[in-house]
Amino acid sequence: MPRIVPQITLLLLCGALISCAGKGSSIPAEAIPNVAGSWEFIAISSSTGKATGIEVALQEGQILVNGIEQPNGQISASSTQIAFLTLDATTGDIVSFGGGCPPTSAPTNSLNPGSVSALDAPFTFTFTENGNAFNVTATLGPDGKTLVNGTYASQSGSACIDSGTITGLGVPKLSGTYTGQLVLPDGTTDAASATLSESSSGTLSVSMVVTGTDNTTFTMTGPVTGNSFSVQGTFQGQSVSYYGYYELVYNSTTSTNVPSIYFVNATNPAQPAYAGTLGVPQI
Known about the structure:
Layout: H1 4-22, E1 37-45, E2 51-65, E3 68-77, E4 82-87, E5 94-97, E6 110-116, E7 122-129, E8 132-140, E9 146-154, E10 163-170, E11 175-183, E12 189-198, E13 203-211, E14 216-225, E15 228-235, E16 238-251, E17 256-265, E18 273-279
Antiparallel strand pairs: 1-2, 1-10, 2-3, 2-4, 3-6, 4-5, 6-7, 7-8, 8-9, 9-10, 11-12, 12-13, 13-14, 14-15, 15-16, 16-17, 17-18
């Protein structure tokens, strides 16, 4: 009998624990990840092999949980929060601003609707390029900042038929100082130093110092979408506009990838002109 009592006590204790666990106890649901911020998605066409950069300032809805705002997994981007680029599929370098799809009668750009529920879970959305809609099915990586195993395909009836693979990466704010030769709005080519600073609201400031034929400084500001931006300012009393894109340029001398900014003078939007690529100074 003395040997049986401890076993009975143990069984009773286990039963009590199981009973307690069953009353009001539950495993907490996994929090929906916060994916809002700057992203770059790269779509590779299965038919042409061409690469399209989809630059996005991704937004995510909020919901109140116990009085605290939490991400609700509903993602989107308006026309001012998304931009399309044509990229070199081999190097990742920019070829031109604007995607490859011809515009429809309603040539809008957007990302909506979209949803994400957890890490290592489906990450789906629809993006519209020049009015042409594409569905994306992928997985949010375990770090919450990568898009993996992704595919995209044009919607039925689209004027831009295409499909392929898509990857994505959350990108940091643009910052730092970049130097090199830059063609200025007056047509001269001078040594330039551009210092970039991005605010929490997604506005980029480019402080430009040029020396040579023109010895001057000027500042341009504008919105950022992913790794691309559009900034405006005043140069010698004239309004100017530049497009820019952050990329890694391979340096064959040092066998390294140099963080660089590709600039296009878009003061005349009908005839944008390459102005130069400025890179982080190499020691």
